[in-house]
Every structure is written in C-alpha cells, then in structure tokens.
Design brief:
Elements: H1 7-14, H2 18-28, H3 30-49, H4 53-83, H5 96-106, H6 117-128, H7 131-134, H8 136-174, H9 179-182, H10 185-194, H11 201-209, H12 215-260, H13 267-287
Helix pairs in contact: 2-4, 3-4, 3-6, 4-5, 8-10, 8-12, 11-12
Amino acid sequence: MRRTPSTDDIEAHDSRSPLVRACATIADSLVFNVAIFAVILANAVVLGLETYPNIVRDAGDELDVLNDVFLGIFVVELVIRLTAFGSRPGGFFRSGWNVFDFVVVIAAFLPGLRENSTLLRIARLARVLRIVRLLPDLRVLVTAIGRSLPGVASLAVLAIVTLFVYGMIGWTIFDDHAPEQYGTIGNAMLTLFVMLSLENLPDNIELGRALSDWTILYFVSYALVAAFLLFNILIGVVINSLEEARAIEHARERADQLEHGGDEITLQERITTLRDALDDLAADLRKR
C-alpha cells in the first residue's frame, strides 16, 4: 500500500543542507543527464578507436588520457548523486542501477587492474553500459528482459520437449526417405528448430508429399503448435514483463522524488498517490 506524502515529508525535504539541495538539483537536471549521456557516448567512441592499431600507435597516449578524464567525470557524477541523498546514503544503494554504476566506476580503482589490459578494457566497456540508466525506456526494456527470464526458461523447456516429440515422429516417418534431415534425433530436432521460422516449411512439405500426402498433417500440426502457439506464448510473457517493468520503473521514480526530489509535493501528486492507494485497496478487496 502506498503512503500519502505528509507535511513531515515536505519539512524533511526543506531541512536539507544547501549542498544536498544543490546536488539533488544537479542530479535531476536535464542538462546534467544529457552531459553524462554525451560523455558515455564519447567514451564508447574512444573505446572503438582503440581497436584500430594505427590510431593506437599514433595517439595511444591521448586515448589513455581521455579514458582517465572520462573516469574522473564519472567519479564526480557519482559523488554528486550520492550527496543528493544527504544523511541517507543508503537510499542510493536501494536502486540496482545505482549499485551497478557504483561498482562499475569504483572497479577502475581496484589494485592491479591497470596492469591487466583485458580487465581494464572490460571495466571501461562496462562504463558504456551505464547508458541504460539514463534512458528510461531502455531501462524498462532491460528490466522486462530480466523479469521475463523465468517464463522464457519454462517456455524453452516446453519448446525442447515439443521439438523432441516431433523429432521422434519425424525420425519414424522420414528416417529412410530423408536421412540427412531426419536420420537421427539430433538432425530431426535441428531441422525442426530451423523450421520454427517457417521459411523452409514449403520445402519440407514437398519433401513429405513425395512420400505421402498424409505427412501434411505432421507439418501443419507442427507449424500450429510450435511456430504459432509457442511464439504467441512468448509474446504474452514479454508483454506481461513489460507491464511489470513499467510499474516498477514508475514506483522507483516516485520513490526517488520522495527521497531527494522537488521541494514541494503538488496537489496533483497527492491526488495521484491517493488514487493509486484506492486502486490497491480495491484490488485487495476483490481478492478476498
């Protein structure tokens, strides 16, 4: 159940020190986030340039300096965002994205990292992934992917069982007629896996009709069960995960606003919070 912001919340925000207020304003400003976004893109460009031997030979030192400058900017950004939480820095680490940012930036200072070129490149590459945090829609997609993994894993098991069953049937029917495609259960499952795209379905139907017209039932039922049904279930899992991810992102944004957001909570925000609370209460009553 969501709690309606009270007068104490507003007073708590008003009692913040000028430094915390300034850092919170900077951290929430569009200019600051766009600047960090540009720095991350520039960092990605520099990492790409390091893959060209000629450029590394001619400007390798300059690229290393730029990487150090980018790291310094990210450290300053991290300090600003941490300071924005004032006397409650633990609130910063309640967000998984903030923890990821913290680990990625601090990892560059681990002992021995600079002596290992592979680990250093991985650490620099991980900093580019921070761009996900700055794009809300992309953040929702990544969250949705994470939440869909259990459902996708179960669907993958179902798909493997389906491929195995139809593979065994295909081996029984086409073992002698098409040994390259169905001569073993492995070849049969691989043929059926490729057929999930339905691109080579007509060719397989013609191959089956050369043996018997009844084989059309095999391929049509496979297309309906594997290609259509399983893919529609996958789409349903992804859509459901997207809805959950949007709800999580909305709750996170509101939590950030209450933690170190604006200095006042508008009447519209109060009404929205009360409406959400009433919706939750109505849902709870319907379950009983």
